[in-house]
Amino acid sequence: MVREAISSTAKDQGISGAESPIVNSSGTDGNKIRIQTEELNPDDTAVIAGAIKDSLGVTDDDLTRQTIGPSWGQEIADRAIRGIVVFMVLVVLLIAAYTRQWKMSVAAVTALIHDLVITVGVYALSGFEVTPATVTGVLTILGFSLYDTVVVFDKIRENTVPQELARTRKTYREASNLAVNQTLVRSINTSIVALLPVGALLYAGIFMLGSGALKDLALSLFVGMAVGAYSSIFIAPALFVQLKELEPGIKAGDKRAMKHRDRRQVDPFANVPAFTEDMPIHDEPGVQSDFGGEAGDGYDGDSGRGNRPVSATPATKFTGETRPSARPVEQSQSAHRPQPKRAPRSQRGKK
Q1: pTM over 0.70
Q2: What is the pLDDT of residues 304-327, one digit of tens each?
Q3: What's the pLDDT tens digit per position in 294-306?
Q4: What are the distances in angstroms from CA 76 to CA 69, 71, 186, 239, 325?
Q5: DSSP secondary-structure letter at 61?
Q6: Residue 302: its pLDDT value, please?
Q7: Stretch(es) of the chain classified as CATH 1.20.1640.10
Q8: Looking at beta carbons, which pairs linking 31-37 to residues 24 or more positions away fall under 8 Å?
Q9: Per CATH, is 71-261 categorized as 1.20.1090.10?
């Protein structure tokens, strides 16, 4: 291909600074080829240009030389820093006004700084050129990361309302962790759906089109979106919870939740005594006690408390004729068995 031929021609000249030229397509239709080297003096530039003319059979009118000095790069860097600072200030004000908690703003900005450092680091290791498209991509991924962070924070606010904490008996950290788990699948799915087309753009920009602006934008977007999903789940919520746990009110609420959790209902079977040789001998199993359980089992079936002595005497079975009555009885014609005698109305309630 033409790009491989130009790259080989520049390398074959043995000029310092042109050992690893960057060759890619440019222009609206991709019909132009740009070769980028390190800083060269005018004589070395002329040598490489002449070699390319001889190799491709083009004229001087088909070649354009351009020198990019440090002032242009410094201008790009200043604009990028200025845009990031303005973005951070707006983020702090927006989140503080929306959530009415400055600690959320601090956690969100810390997560954004993390995303920025990782993205710039990967970009520097890749050796890609910093262009205005790079600045656009960096600002875009900061907005994407902030979107995920706000969603997680909003769920944390919902789960950490004082009335909700009092009802669920959870600590602030546990309620926040539940909020992260509830939004985890959504954050991961959103990030994957966004990374797929950006990854396709990155592949096309590097291996198929060789377009500098496209691959610069796609790389910053791809790295920033992946890192932003990580920071919105693992960094921003954790930092916010650590800041909130320093508040006296949160400490008191966590203490009450832990105190309530330590209250355990006593197991009615936990105090059943272990068998020893000197235990008293009771009746054989199967004999019913007055409380409805087996005699000698030490268990009161009505109250549910163990270790309570109960009578080992078998329950007495009464019938209508043998049961003693506190009142006089007489034969009933309807029930066909003795019934307590009903006292006259004038004598009721008198002894």
Answers
A1: no
A2: 444 445 444 555 555 555 555 555
A3: 444 444 444 444 4
A4: 12, 9, 36, 33, 107
A5: G
A6: 46
A7: 71-261
A8: 33/2, 33/3, 33/6, 34/212, 35/6, 35/7, 35/10, 36/129, 37/10
A9: no
